[in-house]
Structures
1.
Amino acid sequence: MAFRVGVIGGGQLARMMIEPALALGLEIKVFAENSGSSAAMAVTRIGDYTQIAEVREFAASVDVITFDHEHVPLSVLETLEQEGFSIQPSPKALKFAQNKLHMRRRLSELGLPMPAWAEIKSANELDSFIEENGGVAILKTPIGGYDGKGVAVVRSAADATEWLENLDAFGGSLLAEAKVDFVRELAQLVARRTSGELRAWPLVQTVQRSGVCSEVLVPAPESSESTRQAAIEIAETVAKSLGVTGVLAVELFETTDGRLLINELAMRPHNSGHFSIEGSVTSQFEQHLRAVLDLPLGATESVAAHSVMINLLGVDDENDFVSEYPLALAAFPSAKFHTYGKTARQGRKMGHVTVIGSSFEAVLKEARAAANSCLMV
Amino acid sequence: MAFRVGVIGGGQLARMMIEPALALGLEIKVFAENSGSSAAMAVTRIGDYTQIAEVREFAASVDVITFDHEHVPLSVLETLEQEGFSIQPSPKALKFAQNKLHMRRRLSELGLPMPAWAEIKSANELDSFIEENGGVAILKTPIGGYDGKGVAVVRSAADATEWLENLDAFGGSLLAEAKVDFVRELAQLVARRTSGELRAWPLVQTVQRSGVCSEVLVPAPESSESTRQAAIEIAETVAKSLGVTGVLAVELFETTDGRLLINELAMRPHNSGHFSIEGSVTSQFEQHLRAVLDLPLGATESVAAHSVMINLLGVDDENDFVSEYPLALAAFPSAKFHTYGKTARQGRKMGHVTVIGSSFEAVLKEARAAANSCLMV
């Protein structure tokens, strides 16, 4: 007997799924865009994921299709699902991760907490929204934004002329959100099996720099029991109501008055869950495979009291971090370094480092020092 | 920059090296005998490891050659080393793991503790040895034995007629060892980097059934500080004196009077170290890669107070254990199941399961129950 999973996209998320697939003896195949991808070792097809014929052939070689990214056209997935292929998460759920306007509309119907928002089809609508929301708005393209791309802080429609003049490129409208007065950003990861079983990891704090995740602190320091419960309830409601399968990451703002507001959703393993490789009994990558194959989920308890994960972001076109191992590994024998096999480029997510332990202060200090030790060029 | 390691042999040890290679971003290539091996995902060459031309071509594609098994002819490795290839461990060390007579001779020179032994070239020599050692001997073929194969308990030369009549097949002699009155079997794992750095894992107890490792208990229950120190000293002496690089496993007998005697050596990741994937900050597989590439070694501290690893041995030609996941994973969400992608066969090492935790009794009970849950057919 074999459980065969096909992953569309050959990035670091697919790469990190290979490890638990090997451990559990599950078959994993990756559909990548190019040779030399992060997940190259498991690539069985190189092609264009927008071409249904190519995706269909790939899907026929596995039991279930899942994803490393959210860019496969919904129409392709809907057709394949109608043809009987198992797509996890289903396009019925994925459309809310692919399109932020769909997401806001659906979460509003569910009465879930989030920033004030509006669909924007004109400069007038945007100026009205800005006026109603304290003179500033976060303007987002509904589709395709990530890591700070497709997001702009605007104080008047004049700040968004280029987007407003090309509305057709964004499906006819933009998403405006109120700028939230938040204390910090949190993320709640859950996994949901196709047959319904749910498991949640501890609430984490994410620290962003220039719109990119920099550090993840586990569990989120000094969070109250009620905050932790609220976060799990929000994530479980989203997972169930939207029919998410696999890992769901709910990015949250914690406001000055202690409320949680939903920022973004991701329906796949997420940067805020990389800590779980060492920090949890079951990593998000193993759990994602279990969930999309409808295998029973693993325990999500932490292995240590604290985990800190720090991203290794490219500093230039030279430093691939692997070259820094002779010094970095010597100085930090307890730090777990991960690199993704990518060509170096400034700002690129090249890898990450995780430290686990019993003292938050010690773990944070060691993780930061270990990450810094790789940055020398 | 890249660190490229080539592994000869496509078994489960090579398979489990793939995971840390991916994590650390090291390149791994595997030379396998057949397609469909456990390490198939990283296989770049299928061939015959006794043919020097084939091994040479493979060696030219990596920075260092290491091993999944101990069967590559020493002459092949010696020639390649003379030609300038990096073979880790070196054939100078490997010969002591490949040939148990060489091993006993060298360890005797070093004054290390072990059972009484003799080289046997005739029935008379064997009968004398048996008479001097309480009427029984453990007779071993010097080369090629593993998991209880190549080992016989004999009470007279008449019990070994077939081997004694075919001495040439074993290089002209056999190894006789006194039967040790032991309380239990232990194993001490260490890793040694080519430039000398050494790290030791905690002393473990191994439980054998029918000559095959069944359970590994970490740390070895109720072992005294002096026993633990003695084990590390023995293993470090062996590693240094024999020039071992990579992981070295020293299998030990603990006698009724508390002495440690060396049973066997393995110069590669070893079944007694599989627990380290979840149980240690650095697994034996990650450490082996670091060591043979001369990268700094990782911390070997335990992640939890106790780990128990239980082998999943094939029960018949049908049960590949993966088929049992729907029930086994549901019943044991904290157990870490590993399967090696092998065709089912009775007695074959098909996989293993590890449980870690704070209570030895609870961990042992859960690991045994989890392993048993996979055995239903």
2.
Amino acid sequence: MFLASATPSDHLNILVTLSIMWVSAKLMAEVFERLKQPAVVGEILAGVLIGQSVLGWVEPTETTSTLSEIGVIFLLFTVGLETKPSSIFRVGKKAAMVAVLGVVVPFVCGYLLMKAWGSSNVESLFIGTAMVATSVGITARVLGQLGLLEEDTSRIILGAAIIDDILGLLILAVVSSVAEGRIDYFEILLTAGLAIAFTVFVAFIGAPAVTKMAPRIENLRVENSFFVFAVGLCLSLSIAAAYIGIAAIIGAFLAGMALAEATEDKTTIHKQMNGLTEFLVPFFFVSIGMQLRLDVFRDPTVLALTILVFLVAVITKLVGAGVGALSMGLRRAGQVGMGMVPRGEVGVVVAQIGFSLAVINDQLYAVVLFMAVATTLVAPPFLKILFAKEIKTRTPASGA
Amino acid sequence: MFLASATPSDHLNILVTLSIMWVSAKLMAEVFERLKQPAVVGEILAGVLIGQSVLGWVEPTETTSTLSEIGVIFLLFTVGLETKPSSIFRVGKKAAMVAVLGVVVPFVCGYLLMKAWGSSNVESLFIGTAMVATSVGITARVLGQLGLLEEDTSRIILGAAIIDDILGLLILAVVSSVAEGRIDYFEILLTAGLAIAFTVFVAFIGAPAVTKMAPRIENLRVENSFFVFAVGLCLSLSIAAAYIGIAAIIGAFLAGMALAEATEDKTTIHKQMNGLTEFLVPFFFVSIGMQLRLDVFRDPTVLALTILVFLVAVITKLVGAGVGALSMGLRRAGQVGMGMVPRGEVGVVVAQIGFSLAVINDQLYAVVLFMAVATTLVAPPFLKILFAKEIKTRTPASGA
């Protein structure tokens, strides 16, 4: 009573809001793990549950959206940490084929579907873009849990998913500029050039430089010097990427990739990052769910469009990415294609940007969110079936 | 250019603010480690540097103060994690003597000093309260770095520092109620009773219960189940403590202590918590520094009071706690007394609450902050001298 009133009660309210978000996310994660479904889907549904659609316990504020953004930055950073540039180069050619076809087919089909539905050009471009990117975090987690990370197909999926992300974010930059009504081709080319230069610079010059510098970083006096350096690099490159014109999360991903070789044998930093993301990332997933408006699905037209968009998202990615891997045989092509289906956080980020630009409305936002969540939900059981032969012949390793 | 403008630029600004806070804290921590001074002092000074007093790069917002509060909650939680209830009971009697005298002498002398200086009753009570608590985190860190955690004196210092914290926060609850002008003795007793009941319940019933439950927690399906449970317990008890009427941080500390036995052998959870606190805690220290107004020290009267308060803070703790340990001989009493001198974050929390209640003004706030920082700065070199004999006879262990 004394300190509760002594501390400004606003502070207590914020603390209560954040605790409700976090605890409900983890309770739902537990429920979904027991149902053998991805925990991520449980955390998003926790947000739906406590948000405006159902219980109305929490509302988004500056603080919750900041925590959400820091969360997704560190999520992509840790995915980068597990992605050595060399491991992408090795399967480079096949992964690039899978990535490009896995980008072009969903983008074109998504765009055409929306045009046929009667949407505007800009709306259709945004829905197409939201269908492009593969959620590499979710894919990696599912493959790791099945003990399949060492498979050739897994490496191709991971490599292609990363190229996907970069292509997707470039497309997003272009589409965003179109949405803002200033289609300055020179500026688009400049941004694309800067983005590619930034990516190439970090991957080819930054990464080896950091790997060389690693022993010196260890010699810094500050406690946990390597972790401190890693977080500092992640924050700096996130901001640099945002200033250059690409999303902050791609800067974070590249920062992680630059550190991947240097941190390969260091379990301590992985556990430290793990503690940080375990706390921060749920705010991202819950915030996503909090924004979903379930009432739009009462409209049968919207419901029909939702199902259509979902089906097109699954089929185009499966076929597009699958054709890219067809030289490996039909079964493996199916594995690769299904592995690329989850859209997860990247599809949501695209939807959020389109929403914040007022280019897509509440209803389309809900449609895209549903697509991102449902593709994430549908892939894991199919992956289990498609990889049944590989799962039988190896004892499942511990999760990624 | 595209996404930077597509993402609301507010978001980028907040990200830049947080990055400046965090990176400057760590740069100053590195500088201070090289000067063989506590990193914590460097992080607070980083806040002074980038705050209103010097560079004016950042301003406190709802988001920075929330991160600061979450930071101090997890800081006290990790201190609790390293504090087994049984380790306090073992040195209980001596530690209790040290704690009580180390609380009474600074409180009374601080109060009398301020009264003699002409301050109001409430102001004097607050300054006295700010002089009470020992920063157990800083003390433990310094002793660990010197390789002295196994010494008898170290155990007494740690035990006494913890009792100190609890006594200090109880005094704070009482003083806050006085400051709010409603000296309802029944309510004060009720709050004190509730606080003690809450503390005793968590320490004697909660801790063994959690230790027993530990294997079941491990069996939860959610990833990193033990870490997730720990964070959930920390958030829940923080909120419970705030509702009961004691500070959220004491709830966090008790949550940590309840988990101390169960997490003793678990390096993973310690590393995960370490990653979380490495990221969050600097926001607390930097926020402290950001609030300091250096210009108040231009007034020679304020400067004189600052020096006086600092000297009284050092001497009263040294003598009070020292007398409590006098049965161990003069040298050991000196070790214990000096080990209790750092006020660190707890003194600052008291000052913040007094400031937010408008009970103490800018000038007194600056005086107390200076006292908290300076006592933290002055203790480590003296501890090295007082422990010279023990340091010689043992090879320094790795840090705590």
3.
Amino acid sequence: MDNFEFYSPTRFVFGRGAEEKTGALVRKYGGTKALLHYGGGSVKANGVYDKVVASLEAAGVAYVPLGGVQPNPRSGLVREGIALCRREKIDFVLAVGGGSVIDSAKAIAFGTLYDGDFADFYFGKDVKRPTPVPAALPIGTVLTIAAAGSEGSGNSIITLEPDMLKRGATGDALRPAFSILNPEFTFTLPAYQTACGATDMFAHVVERYFTPTRDVAVSDELCEGLMRTIVAESRKVMSAPRDYAARANLMWAGSLAHNNVCGAGRAQDWASHGIEHELSALYGCAHGAGLAVVMPAWMDYVKDVDIPRFARFAAKVFGVPEGEPAAMAAEGIRHYRAWLRDLGMPLTFAELGAKKEDIPALVAKLGLNGNTVGTFKPLAEADVTRILESC
Amino acid sequence: MDNFEFYSPTRFVFGRGAEEKTGALVRKYGGTKALLHYGGGSVKANGVYDKVVASLEAAGVAYVPLGGVQPNPRSGLVREGIALCRREKIDFVLAVGGGSVIDSAKAIAFGTLYDGDFADFYFGKDVKRPTPVPAALPIGTVLTIAAAGSEGSGNSIITLEPDMLKRGATGDALRPAFSILNPEFTFTLPAYQTACGATDMFAHVVERYFTPTRDVAVSDELCEGLMRTIVAESRKVMSAPRDYAARANLMWAGSLAHNNVCGAGRAQDWASHGIEHELSALYGCAHGAGLAVVMPAWMDYVKDVDIPRFARFAAKVFGVPEGEPAAMAAEGIRHYRAWLRDLGMPLTFAELGAKKEDIPALVAKLGLNGNTVGTFKPLAEADVTRILESC
């Protein structure tokens, strides 16, 4: 086990009616005037927005709305939010939505307090130790989709315009003070979004599970347990979207998949995420959909580095019977693809709407500059090219 | 799944040499003059105390030592610590030791800021919703035994003199700001203490695993994964006390067993802990040893409430083959006792040094006053009596 720090200070408030505590929680964490940040309007259509506003008003918290966050949130709206927060003397940033809204909120919360350009702290995946952001306004979230895990993470991913480079920032200051998770809010999600979310949270565990670090029995168990849960509960919600228990288990699994309890003491990979980010930045596809294409292809490419680990993945996560390890490894990846297919995910470049001729540009945008990405098998540009070609 | 809040803000700093960060961490959390609280002197003998002092001095943190915490820490030393903190204008409480030292430190950290008697906030297990302590000095820990989980919990258990009633307090203010976990510090523990620690952490998961709450797939998986880890890694450290990987996995499992990630969304039981606390208060036995006697007896007594859950416990934790559920349930408990026996734990009143004639007094001290304890099967005084008689 590697040395590590584990720090997950977010207060998770989970369950039916949890949003009624929003206003009191903003107050608890020092907020008197909140930026109310949201996306394309679905939170207005389904009533979540009004519930949050009612709670803010009941607690005497003033608010300034800023909607319009797109999937793969962009720097332009972040800059607009920063200007608005400064002008309105906002002291709390409240995100109502999914990972894109939360990531945008984090960038605004940090950028408001930072004298320079917020993008200074957004780096490519080849940067092993990005400088953490120094400070941010307190952040709260009301989650509406179980997926990104941003509600419990210290990360934010923004697409930097005009070059459409998807880049990440990190830092304890980006961890939400609280996150409200009401599984009922996910009942009415389109099936495709639910599926993309399950794909994404599973991938967050995979990035931690396939590691060169040895002797990590505790977190191996946590990873495998979460992956089994995500597969089982996602199958339930696809056939019964209003199954509260399944929605609840999937939602909580999504937070645990990314608050790093699964990654404590382990070198983590993140090559698939790095590669995918350029796909969704270029094509505007859902992050989960991009991962469904990239991650199994990554597995095929890297599995020979540690066949026993892939055999264990097959056995523990998908119940593949014991047998010849290389065959088990292949069978595990086949099961993974079959689950993604059942969810309705794309599995190839063609299904995603990506084009082979864009591969050189995608690889270049990763910005490796002669470095590698990933730890399970460090990948140079040529490796990334071969993975993308296999898609 | 029940509604819940999950809040575990402690910064865990884990690994070889982690104690070198002690002074800087005290500073980070506002400390300038720390109470350095410890136990019977083993931390002086094994060098941990000197390492911590060196780190405090390097960071320019003043400190006032207060040793002498006994297992099952007592109110007398807590009162002494509170007076010392007030007199010396201490602004940080640093515990160097195991659960007893940490629990004593928490009581001091709270009592120093509280105008009344600190014991006002220490309640019996029959109190379903004890009033959380309002505020406390910031607390840090340097852990020297993997067991109690107090390094990541918001609880403190103190034996109130002169009646020797073991009572608990709770509250977010009692959660340590940071906890330093260096598995090497546990290399030289006596085997019996290592075993008591493993017994205790396993019991923390059991108290959460056996629940009347349904549809808790995520935390069921986490519970089972941690229990498997604790059984496997404890067997390794008993035969190889300096096995870093096994010590590390056991230590981290102990923290996760009690920071409540396993209990999110579940009604928890805690009857066995409540019953055991009166045993260790009366006889001065190790908490883990008392649990090894009480908890399997509790299982025998309550298992018919939910045989399928006990059968699942048997299968998932101890690998009992599928079969007739009641037989599987009994076999699971047998495996549990066999593991405890292998650890060298007592399993009966006689082995513990407890006496049958004390049972009425033990039951009375639980202070049920006509209420019940536990949720899996709520136990009245007559039930507790029968469980203790079966020991």
